[in-house]
Write a structure and sequence with these properties.
The chain has 348 residues and is mostly helical. It has 2 domains: 166 residues, Cytochrome Bc1 Complex, Chain D, domain 2 (Orthogonal Bundle), CATH 1.10.760.10; 138 residues, Cytochrome c-like domain (Cytochrome Bc1 Complex, Chain D, domain 2, Orthogonal Bundle), CATH 1.10.760. Helix content is 34%, strand content 3%. It has a two-stranded antiparallel sheet. Helix 3 packs across helix 7 and helix 4 packs across helix 7. It is globular.
């Protein structure tokens, strides 16, 4: 039987992401008056862990989450929205700060992690304290060193806002703004962020070529870094002690704070290397300002200890030239389109 022209076109289109493919061959369908969004799954990515079950991903829900993300009224002083610690220019991490600034001139314990490709995780934060995007969204709102607000305080500030009234009623079919609606909207916004269009991604799709230096760096990465930072997510989402000495002021012992297990002392989540060139500072407490400082640590700064990852025992031997090559490769992981994507920018 002859294939339809539509089928032939769909099969012959270059597959960049699942969203692109579905968007080319299938129109977005309204659900209860809302516009359903297809979850973006880039070519070569594994299936995401989070699939928006019980919280249908819609254009209207996403836009409500975006408005909340940038709204200072979610903080007790009205000037510390989610976006104050998660800046788009830094791939939604903290831009050139060691630790984030919170209300009342406070500092958080750790450097704010980047917010993209979260749908491929089953736990969140540096120590894996939270196992859902829902709970992860709640924590900074209540944190005394972050936004310091309560649901009651937020709702009292926004319940008379006509735009919010209309948005919440449309998305959640309720004239009452509830805490769970706030968190579900933020889930949709942060969970929909995908970064997969860097120079590296274009190289993998055959659209560009690497320079000789980038290619050398890619080879070194595959030999020395890929075990903990595997493609395409550039993290295995494990928790490891990489031999950083504990900060005597912060006294942060990482995942052990959650598990109570001494074997988890000084273990922190392996961060993604995507967008790493624009998301300084580095490490869980932001102690390093540059990628070169990070590389120096891995070469000569790994401190021995009972929970240090065996892969890092003795450090990673690299020459100065090899370090330059690796940094050149890491820069190919910058997704310039993502940090300028108007879908994720502050609403006008």
């Amino acid at each position: 039987m002859r294939k339809s022209l539509l089928t032939i076109l769909c099969l012959s289109l270059p597959v960049i992401t699942l969203t692109y493919l579905l968007g080319s061959c299938q129109k977005e369908q309204p659900v209860n008056g809302l516009t359903l969004l297809e979850q973006e799954i880039p070519a070569g990515f594994p299936n995401p862990v989070y699939r928006f079950e019980g919280n249908h991903l819609t254009q209207e829900g996403f836009e409500l989450g975006r408005k909340l993300f940038y709204d200072g009224r979610l903080s007790i002083d009205n000037v510390h929205p989610c976006s104050s610690c998660h800046e788009q220019a830094a791939a939604f991490g903290t831009f050139e700060h060691d630790r984030s600034h919170g209300v009342n001139n406070t500092h958080t314990l750790r450097n704010a992690p980047v917010l993209f490709n979260l749908a491929w995780r089953n736990s969140f934060h540096w120590d894996g304290e939270f196992t859902s995007l829902y709970d992860e969204a709640a924590h900074p709102i209540h944190g005394a060193n972050e936004m310091g607000e309560t649901y009651e305080g937020i709702i009292n500030k926004i319940k008379e806002d006509a735009d919010y009234q209309e948005r919440f009623k449309k998305v959640f079919r309720s004239s009452i703004i509830r805490p769970e609606y706030i968190l579900k909207a933020l889930q949709q916004y942060t969970g929909y962020m995908v970064s997969a269009n860097s120079r590296y991604d274009k190289y993998k799709r055959g659209e560009v070529s690497f320079t000789l230096q980038e290619d050398r760096g890619y080879t070194i990465y595959k030999n020395s870094c890929a075990t903990c930072h595997p493609e395409p997510l550039f993290t295995d989402n494990s928790y490891r002690n990489i031999g950083l000495p504990v900060d005597n002021f912060l006294k942060d012992y990482g995942r052990m704070r959650i598990t109570g297990n001494a074997a988890d002392s000084l273990k922190f989540r392996v961060p993604t290397l995507r967008n790493t060139n624009i998301s300084s500072n580095y490490m869980h407490d932001g102690r390093f300002n540059t990628l070169y400082q990070c590389m120096t640590h891995y070469r000569t700064g790994v401190q021995p200890g009972p929970t240090v990852d065996p892969l890092l025992s003795g450090g990673i031997p690299l020459t100065d030239a090899q370090v330059n090559d690796v940094v050149a490769f890491l820069k190919t992981l910058t997704d310039s389109a993502f940090i300028k994507d108007s879908r994720f920018s502050r609403p006008r």
